[in-house]
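Why this split exists: single-chain examples teach little about how molecules sit against one another. For that reason, every record in the complexes split bundles all components of an assembly together and asks for one structure covering all of them. Below is a record exactly as it appears in the raw files.
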Amino acid sequence: MTGSKSADIGDRNQDSIFSEVTSIFTSVRTTIVVLCVLAVASIFGTIIPQNVDLDQFRRVASPFYYRLVVILDLHNVYRSWWFILLLLLLTGNLLGCLLQRLPRIPGEWKGVGKKGTIRFTLSDARPKDQVRAILAPVLGKLMGSSPSVVEDAKSTILIWVRHRVFLLAFPLIHAAIIAILLGGVVGLFYGVRGNIVIEEGEAGQDFVRYPSGDADTLPFSIAVDKFTLKRYPTGQPKEYRSDVRLLKNGEQVAEGSILVNQPLTYEGISLYQANYQLIGVKLVTLRVVDEQGKTAELVVRPPESARLPGTDYTIGIHSVDPGSTTRGPGADLNVVKTGEAPKRASVFRDDSAALQLDGVKITFGNYEPLYTTGLQIGYDPGTNIVWFGCGLLVIGFCLTLFTNLRSVTASLTSEAGKTTIVISGRSRRNRAEFRETIENEVRGSLEKS
Amino acid sequence: MTSSALTTYVVFLYLACWFGYLLVCTATPPQSAARRAMLGMLVIVWGLSTAAIGLRWIESYQMGIGRAPLSNLYESLIFFSWSIALALIIVRLRYRVDSVILIGLPLVLVTMGYTFFLDREIKPLIPALQSNWLVIHVVTCFLGYAGFTVSFIAALLYLVVKAFDAHGKYLPTPELLDEITYRAVLVGYPLLTVGIITGAAWADYAWGSYWSWDPKETWSLITWMVYSAFLHARLARDWKGHRTAVLSLVGFAAVLFTYFGVNYLPGLHSYF
């Protein structure tokens, strides 16, 4: 993450355009600036109406503003050339910082890469090996591990590193963001989104792509057997459900129910419950009481009419009222007597005054609504790349939150019968406290023995 | 007692805590027994607010609805105030600064006070919210927001302390406030990230698209980018003090807009 500093200090005389460009991509200053610009650009996208019809917009906007919107794609900020350019710049910058930082990690892994932020020197009259025998167990206990040792004739260097796995957090987090952006690009190029509207009892295969509005065809057809809308007693919607079968070349390949929060996936293409529309009724049941007081049901299936038994009347459905009045649900009927002009009559479920035809009383019984269901279609091969990136990101954050990288180096050098002890160390957290502990333990153990 | 009544009591008890803190912070030295007693009382009140949330959960089951109390503006505000209070208590225990609580409690009070104007009835979930992702998404987001709130409080105090050179008896050192400003972001940032990821996962599951540039999504990303800039400035370019404090204020403004402002723009999150 210290990219820019080393790049800025680099020898300017030898700077070619190449290294100028490199320094832009490895600079954290670039990261900060790009993030801020992206943030501001994103704000525009939430204020300026998006995905508007440009022709309509042209009529209401001033010519200058219209031209600005068209050139900068302000009606489609998040897919505009300059927004994507910014995202590419961010990706390049992340990659640059990552590549610059990676080579340093192995050294730090071994505990030799970076200078310690804690450093002090002591001198001891005892020989090197004796000092080592005193210090190694003390520091080993503090660090919870045994040291790696670098030795030559004159000196011994003991290195302890704790929670070195933290060093993976930086590459993981930054590779994760690159993966997520990459997944987004794959989705942009190879993903398909769309919408299909199918009537109950029908099948559909042609859909409209989003956001382009182009027509497209699914590799299978969706037969919608039934759409159900359930409500809570309060009237709020509880469940939208489409029972579907998927057909390929006339053969059923899958079946199931699609609910909100419960999609159906086949061959990587997912179908989601998006919306519905009430377009009519499948059937209406009328309650019929004849002159003897016998109750029967008359079922009318529009657009067909039904003959009222024992009379010359046929009854058709003109329209259904799902219950807008206190008389409950009802219907407007087309009543036709053979040889007479058709009449219009209304019936309701909770109406005391029933419709009378030749002494037969008719009230509204029940109806089965006919819906169309709106299904969203989603196919995005980039999604798994995005989830992979998210996984890396979470692992990276866990490493930063739950580890505390610490290292201690004890370098012992024999000089003129004495041993010079240089202790250096690093701690990501509680630096002062760590320093105090190390100093106390080292000095204490040397004085005690 | 109903959860709604308990919540009302909690608001007034928080108010009492704040007056208590005002008193002991001006009248007694740091680490006095009176200050510790006030902390104890705050923890108890926070425990009561936890109980109120639990009670509302139980009540929803008794009503035959059975859902976590995290699904409308009223419930999210209650949970947000709970999270802020938790964050304040953690900061007090870790850094021993009472002034953060003194400034932070009014935010808890305002958040809870806002709920007095909202419908408290427990209603069943509409189909779009019937998902296990709801709980994890809302919890991570609001815990993240609480972290940012603490960072905001510390940054504000930092700027005040610096401007009036006022640290000493009543206020902590600017160095400590600067540290809290940074540490709180360090905790809030991963939580917000996980909140955004779980939201994306849920959106993918429910609508077939993990990201659709809905205003709330976009604003959460804006917030995320501001705090990303904050962390990079701090970690890689050694920004400290005044500049990071200002960035923390900007970040918190983005948090507030993500939470409240977005409701005035059309989008998928209209139930919050």
